[in-house]
Write a structure and sequence with these properties.
The chain has 15 helices and eleven strands. By secondary structure, it is of the alpha/beta class.
Length: 432
């Protein structure tokens, strides 16, 4: 990532007229990216990691998701969809995974690829990476963009531990763009590659990728929108799960479920761990940073609870989707993706990413003397505050309110507890 870049793209949008200032979103944000000021929510773009917790928490739909509209594909001569492993879990058995995939061709795509094509291969690639980097432990999966951004933001000392390889869908994007251009005799900008994704962090990763200087995809469309489009376009003639022209890779779908990536990378020699939920990830990352955890080889962290099936851009309940995917994996016939061109690209380092930089957030001041002076003011204000971290002031904690006051973004009177005490003191003095 270019560390000089100051503007950040985020796949969430604030609808001011719907915000009541309830502060529910402020309380759940794991990176303190949200504030309520003048009764309306505000976003600190430098802190947001697009985990989507605020979207779920808001009862008034004042925080909504952004993804590319399906009409975005129309400007390309050849359109490829790459579907997330969680996609298969959205459809009941009476529709079928193969039917859903086939209907994507009907709604405008020329070709459909699956993340699950390469997850089995990816497990062996990760094992090779672990063998080559024995001096770094643990290696942390780079598959969840929110976790990568979380480490950049709050745990920069762990940046060398991140797996420096593209995620499976991005690998497929690199591979298919070259393949399609060659087979279809097209220029690269004539090929539109779109990810069908379950969460806002993956939309953000497409529009502002970490670890690469080039956008590998042309857009990210939510599973919600694609699901609705498929259900609209489905006809009785489409229901054919025996259609031999449609290939599926159900064995690789397991990565949609929390724990399965770590399980499949583990060949019996390795110590692996899986963590789901961004709050749990923060606790484990803190333990790793403080060397308070036993030596592990590989850790997979998902910002969404239950893994990618828990993403806010999915349709189905994550437990139901998990059950469906487990059934597909359990009953799958072996279907391996053995492509020499893909293997050559991997061996040539085409899927490598450069080391990531820390993500700069608020600094008190560039001048160290002024910064230290502001720090003293923050500590002095903090002593005045009640320490309840109630968020009623619009800041997530008393410490963040003290910082906001010193930075000129809030005032001491925003503290409801102190304001109430001041009113009571005045009333008591008036009685005397």
């Amino acid at each position: 990532m270019n560390s000089k870049r100051k503007k950040y793209f985020h796949a969430i949008k604030l609808i001011e007229e719907k915000c009541t200032g309830c502060t529910k979103c402020v309380r759940v944000c794991p990176t303190e990216a949200l504030r309520v000021r003048n009764g309306k929510v505000q976003l600190d773009a430098t802190r947001c990691i697009d985990c989507g917790k605020c979207v779920v928490a808001c009862p008034f739909e004042a925080i909504q998701t952004y993804a590319d509209h399906i009409s975005s594909i129309d400007k390309f001569k050849y359109k490829l969809a790459i579907i997330s492993t969680s996609f298969a879990g959205q459809f009941p058995a009476n529709i079928g995974y193969k039917t859903a995939k086939k209907t994507l061709l009907k709604i405008g795509f020329d070709e459909v690829a699956e993340e699950s094509m390469v997850t089995v291969k990816m497990s062996s690639i990760i094992r090779e990476y672990l063998d080559k980097h024995k001096n770094i432990r643990p290696i942390i999966s780079s598959n969840c963009p929110s976790i990568v951004r979380l480490i950049q933001l709050r745990f920069p000392s762990l940046l060398p531990n991140i797996l420096h390889l593209e995620a499976p869908m991005s690998m497929l994007s690199v591979y298919f763009r070259k393949k399609i251009c060659k087979e279809q005799n097209l220029k690269e900008d004539e090929v539109g590659i779109f990810l069908i994704v379950p969460c806002v962090s993956q939309v953000t990763a497409v529009h502002q990728p970490e670890g690469t200087y080039k956008n590998l995809e042309d857009g990210a469309i939510s599973i919600q929108e694609i699901y609705c489009k498929i259900m609209t376009e489905l006809t009785e003639n489409d229901y054919d799960e025996n259609d031999e022209d449609i290939e599926i890779y159900p064995k690789g779908l397991s990565w949609a479920i929390s724990g399965m990536e770590a399980e499949e990378v583990n060949d019996g020699r390795l110590k692996t761990m899986a963590v789901s939920g961004v709050d749990n990830a923060i606790k484990i990352l803190a333990k790793i940073e403080n060397q308070q955890i036993e030596k592990l080889d590989y850790i997979v962290m998902n910002s969404c609870t239950n893994g990618c099936v828990g993403g806010v851009l999915n349709i189905e309940n994550s437990f139901i989707a998990t059950s469906r995917i487990r059934s597909l994996v359990r009953n799958a016939n072996e279907q391996e993706f053995n492509d020499q061109y893909f293997e050559n690209m991997y061996q040539q380092g085409k899927f490598n990413v450069p080391p990531l930089d820390p993500r700069p957030i608020m600094t008190l001041d560039d001048d160290i003397k002024i910064a230290l002076s502001k720090m003293k003011k923050i500590n002095a204000i903090l002593k005045q505050l009640p320490g309840l971290d109630c968020s009623a002031c619009g800041s997530p904690t008393c410490k963040s309110l003290a910082e906001d006051i010193v930075m000129g973004n809030a005032k001491i009177g925003d503290c409801v507890v102190l304001l109430r005490k001041e009113i009571q003191d005045k009333e008591n003095r008036g009685k005397k």
